[in-house]
Specification:
about 675 residues; four-stranded antiparallel β-sheet; 12 helices; 8 strands; coiled coil
Length: about 675
């Protein structure tokens, strides 16, 4: 914002300097108008003391001094503009400014400001060129005034047009010179000077014009190649002038601006040899050029004012509510992001709590399952201790012990996984581990049946012993036979039961081996899943930490942005106050500019009226000069008649009335 303010200050300074130059130009135009009026007054004077050349020379020196002063002021303004441009670029290049204002907007403002400054510099260059053109046009005037050729008060002027006929009518002190020159037509030169008339026609031949002026000889030679040689003998003074085609062409090109629509040649300062009326007309032309330049400057000022208004609008857009809305949108977006992150963190916390609860439940279930399994294993081991005499039961007990050891190892691994609280895949183990003791329970039931049979055998043997001890031999024998039969049958049944128990044992052993393989595979898969779960848990923990860090950073950024927003609000308030003051100042300047433009238009209308009056005066002057010429011709005829009378009087023939009339005429001359 400070950079934009500096830009606006620079533009306003240049605008004020421009208005100052415009005021100076208007003042200079007024001075030129006054000088023109003064020159007209000097030209109207015909006394011996009136000398318009000295006044015009003083005017030219004053114009040169004004031009030098204006050039110095323009150089100072350019240097000031360069310093302001450098200062503005340094200000815009500041890092803090780019933090407060977007870079795209700053670049756009820099481009618009540079464009406005270039336009102002171009306008100053145009003013300087206009002043230099004025001085260039005034220098030949001064030279012509210093090198003026005066031939007994008779002024000779030549105007040449290549493509159209040029007609110049000069009447000065009774001398009328008419010259009509074109490239493709004949040349007619008519000189009437003190009663002498010389005429020469044809451009294809050398033209020689003799002018006898009070006994002096004037020659003009025009050759076929267009070279002109003029020899003037003026009271014993000899002046020569050589004009080639190239010089004539340059002079004609310089005089194209003075040509009319119908081929009439307007008067030029550089070609009017000591003609005071031509000087005044050329001064009017210069004043007209100055007014045109002022008109161009006014258009340039209007364009620059429009550009300044555009810059002010851009500044208002920068300092207006859009910037505050952008900051508010950024703050709201940051708040939304913080809310989303807080919601995600809350969801992650809930998920982690659920996982912890599930892990705790799984740990409890595995602990209960382990306790039940150990109790069952202890029961089976005690039952096997009671049947130590059975080899099958020993083998079964040994295998069950191995299975129990493997199961204890698996349970130990599961407990380790439960301690780390990252296991998620023990649902299948809950289903597979309790299935193992079912077949073991069948085997235990078979062993109980075998034990009952053995008990029955022991009872039978005990009864047999008692019978043998207390009975006779025959009865004993019969009893023994019965007991033996019973024992044989019992032993047969026992063998069948043992075979069935062996088959069941083999079946259980196969099932246990298969289940052991399945448990080993499940253990491997559980380990893999445990590793994956542990890695995922680590990643989630890292993600949680990163999210927590991001939340802390966002909170810090929010605090910083709130401080920046407060600062920007204060700056925006200050900028609004400055913009209001600038708007008031701009309105005042625009009103002043409109008033100046209205005054300038009035001055233009007045100058147009004056120019039309001057043209009317010129036409009236030419008419009076023609009347004077006719009167002089009549006077010359009368003088010639009275010369004859004088000759007659010299010969002795003179009337009294003629004598009196001649004396009266001599007195009047």
């Amino acid at each position: 914002m400070e950079g934009h303010m500096e830009n606006m200050r620079a533009v306003i300074k240049v605008y004020e300097s421009k208005k100052k130059h415009q005021k100076e130009a208007e003042a200079r135009a007024a001075e030129l108008e006054e000088e023109n009026q003064r020159l007209r007054g000097m030209l109207t004077k015909k006394g011996p003391d009136g000398d318009p050349q000295k006044g015009f020379s003083a005017f030219l020196t004053e114009m040169e001094a004004t031009y030098e002063k204006t050039q110095k002021e323009n150089e100072a303004t350019k240097a000031e503009n360069a310093a302001l441009k450098q200062e503005a670029e340094e200000t815009l290049g500041n890092r803090l400014l780019f933090q407060e204002v977007p870079s795209g907007v700053v670049k756009k403002a820099m481009f618009a400001w540079k464009k406005a400054v270039e336009g102002l510099e171009g306008a100053l260059d145009k003013v300087e060129r206009a002043h230099s053109m004025l001085l260039e046009k005034a220098r030949p005037l001064r030279k012509d005034i210093s090198l003026e050729v005066v031939n007994n008060g008779c002024h000779v002027e030549k105007n040449i047009s290549k493509d159209e006929n040029a007609k110049v009518c000069i009447i000065n002190n009774g001398h009328h010179i008419e010259e009509n020159i074109s490239k493709g037509e004949n040349v007619k030169v008519c000189v009437i000077n003190n009663g002498h008339h010389v005429e020469n026609v044809s451009k294809d031949e050398n033209v020689k014009v003799r002018v006898i002026n009070n006994g002096h000889h004037v020659e003009e030679n025009v050759s076929k190649d267009g070279n002109v040689k003029i020899c003037v003998i003026n009271n014993g003074h000899h002046v020569e002038e050589n004009v080639s085609k190239d010089a004539e062409k340059a002079r004609n090109e310089a005089g194209n601006a003075m040509l009319g629509k119908n081929g009439e040649v307007k008067l030029r300062l550089t070609e009017s040899k000591a003609r005071p009326c031509r000087k005044s007309s050329d001064l009017e032309k210069e004043v007209w050029d100055l007014k045109q330049n002022n008109g161009h400057l006014a258009t340039e000022l209007s364009r620059l004012s429009k550009e300044r208004e555009k810059l002010q609008q851009e500044l208002r857009t920068l300092c207006g509510p859009k910037e505050g809305s952008r900051q508010l949108e950024m703050i709201e977006e940051l708040k939304r992001r913080v809310e989303l992150l807080s919601k995600e963190l809350f969801a992650e916390k809930e998920v982690s709590e659920k996982l912890r609860l599930e892990l705790a439940a799984q740990a409890k279930e595995t602990a209960a399952m382990k306790a039940r399994f150990l109790e069952k294993m202890e029961a089976t081991s005690l039952f096997g201790a009671e049947t130590l005499n059975s080899c099958i039961l020993k083998e079964l007990h040994w295998k069950l012990d191995n299975v129990a050891k493997k199961q204890s190892k698996a349970l130990q691994l599961v407990s380790e996984m439960e301690e780390e609280n990252f296991n998620q895949s023990f649902h299948q183990s809950e289903r597979t581990v309790p299935d193992i003791p079912v077949e073991a329970l069948d085997a235990v039931g078979d062993n109980s049946k075998v034990r009952q049979v053995l008990v029955e055998l022991e009872d039978v043997l005990r009864e047999l012993k008692e019978a043998l001890d207390g009975a006779e031999k025959n009865e004993v024998v019969s009893k023994l036979k019965g007991l033996v039969d019973r024992m044989v049958a019992a032993m047969a049944t026992l063998r069948q039961e043992e075979e069935e128990a062996l088959r069941k044992h083999e079946k259980v052993r196969g099932m246990l081996s298969v289940r052991a393989q399945v448990l080993a595979e499940e253990l491997a898969t559980l380990r893999d899943k445990f590793e994956e779960a542990r890695g995922e848990a680590g990643r989630r923990a890292e993600a949680l930490e990163s999210e927590a860090r991001m939340n802390r950073d966002l909170l810090e950024e929010m605090a910083e942005h709130e401080e920046e927003v407060e600062e920007l609000r204060g700056k925006s308030r200050r900028m609004e106050s400055t913009i209001e003051s600038l708007g008031k100042k701009v309105e005042e300047l625009s009103k002043a500019g409109q008033e100046k433009e209205a005054k300038f238009k009035k001055l233009l209308k007045e100058t147009e009226k004056l120019s039309s009056e001057i043209l009317n005066l010129r036409s009236e002057r030419t008419r009076l000069l023609l009347q004077n010429e006719v009167a002089q011709k009549n006077h010359q005829e009368i003088v010639a008649i009275y010369r004859t009378h004088l000759l007659n009087a010299a010969q002795g023939f003179m009337d009294k009335e003629v004598h009196e009339m001649l004396q009266r005429i001599l007195r009047t001359r």
